[in-house]
Amino acid sequence: MVWRVKVGGEWVYLYLLIEFQSSVDKYMALRMMVYIGLLYQDLIKRGEVLDDGRLPPILPIVLYNGSTRWTSATDIFDLIPAVPGLVEQFKPRLKYLLIDENSYTDHELASAKNLVAAVFRIEHPDSPQGISELISLLGVWLSDRPDLRRMFAIWIRATLMRKPEYRIVLPQIDDLQELKVMLADRLEEWALDYEAQGMKKGIQQGMQEGRQQGEKKGEALALQRLLTKRFGTISSDMTARIADASSEQIELWLDQVLEANSLEELFKPGKQ
């Protein structure tokens, strides 16, 4: 990506080298150094250096959206151990700008009106409707940058197609507005899918809780039968105590019931 900025009254073309990462790469600093070297070689080959022969500036950026915090060095200098004497002065230095999604809360991302925050929110949308809203925002922010509008449209299309939960296939699209129109027909379908997935999750959770309650009830009945065989009829208070106990506590009593000499010993306060 090429960005034009004004420095000292003159336009300077800044190359943005952006790398998306979903996992931590220990040697990312080395990778970025290689990418920059290859980009400079290509610029020289194409004759796209500055008028005086110098190389244009490049800003290397790593956008990270993994589930853990980024722990790798952001400067290749830190990947090389200290060297005594003259050699230390010639260790390479090359830093990249790390933008770690984990450093921001959902509220901060939603309130931040910039392209990076929009990228992270599209990667992890809170709802299908949120995707359409973000595309609309990008259309406004990039109204005077057709090149970036095209780039974001292509990237969003690729992002949506690689997510299995959307189950979507889109034709080649190079405009944000066209992408928004094509997605409009799918929003209702996605919303129904989200609702169905939520219901399925709720049913599964209910079944799991039911199984757990059933297992607990069965363990409680087994404990009561063992107690009755060992110590005779147990009181209603004791039955209620067993019913109110956790599964872990009931299992503990089951383990100890054969060794206990009396109900009082088994159920005495503080016994674990």
Can you count the helices? 9
- Please estimate the helix content: 40-55%
SS-derived structural category: alpha/beta
Q: How far apart are the first and last residues' alpha carbons, in Å?
A: 65 Å
Mean pLDDT comes to: 75
Q: Going across the biggest sheet, name each strand in turn.
A: 1-2-3-4
Task: Evaluate the radius of gyration.
Answer: 31 Å
Using DSSP, what is the number of strands?
4
**Sheet with the most strands, sense and barrel status:** 4 strands, mixed
Helix-strand string: EEHEEHHHHHHHH
Poorly predicted regions are none
Overall geometry comes to elongated
Give a structural overview:
- By secondary structure, the chain is of the alpha/beta class.
- It has a domain at 1-103.
- 53% of the residues lie in helices and 11% in strands.
- It has a four-stranded mixed β-sheet, covered by helices on one side.
- Helix 3 runs antiparallel to helix 4, helix 4 runs antiparallel to helix 6 and helix 6 (176-231) packs parallel to helix 8 (247-256).
- The radius of gyration is 31 Å and the shape is elongated.
